[in-house]
Amino acid sequence: MEIVNKAAQENYATFRAAIVLLQETVDEHVRGFIAKAEDADIPAEAWAVPDADELKSLCDKAVREIEEFTKDARKYEAELVAKNWRV
User: Fold this and answer.
1) pTM for the whole thing?
2) b/e per residue, 10-35, with b = 16+ CB within 10 A?
């Protein structure tokens, strides 16, 4: 029986938790901010900021990147499991 690298498992669990937290933050807070910005009455003399559609587009792009990163992490996890978490 081979020894499983507990530190690698714990590090990976922390990494996955960080990704989940990032996804939740984007879903709850960033999209909420965009919704508020969309409803805001911004005076003409205010600083130039991206409009709500541009913010939504940027947010969607970030979500796609996070999803791609998550897929890559799952592939890496499969490799780690196959190696009994030896890094």
Assistant:
1) 0.74
2) eebeeeeeeeeeeeeeeeeebbeebe
